[in-house]
Write a structure and sequence with these properties.
Structural class: mainly alpha
Strand content: 5-15%
Number of helices: 3
Distance between the termini: 29 Å
Number of strands: 2
Amino acid sequence: MSPYGRAKLMVEWVLSGAATAHDLRYVALRYFNVAGADPEGRAGLRSPNAAHLLKRICEVAAGDRSHIDVYGTDYKTSDGTCIRDFIHVSDLADVHLRCY
């Protein structure tokens, strides 16, 4: 659907070919919107320079920000905005460790 997605797929094809030719083991992760914070507060929602959606939503809820802007009104949803799936950063880190 995009040059970025196509490039990722091409890398997976190359890895697959190399695995077949050279008995290579590999894992290709296709994760999506990473969200959340380090449970120990070292990075993420509490990081002063973070600018991602969940931090901004929390700032609005806490009264530290007046609003957030939602872009896109032409999606095939009831209100025209997109639907996003998220994975928590801790879950993603766990997956990386399990792939080893």
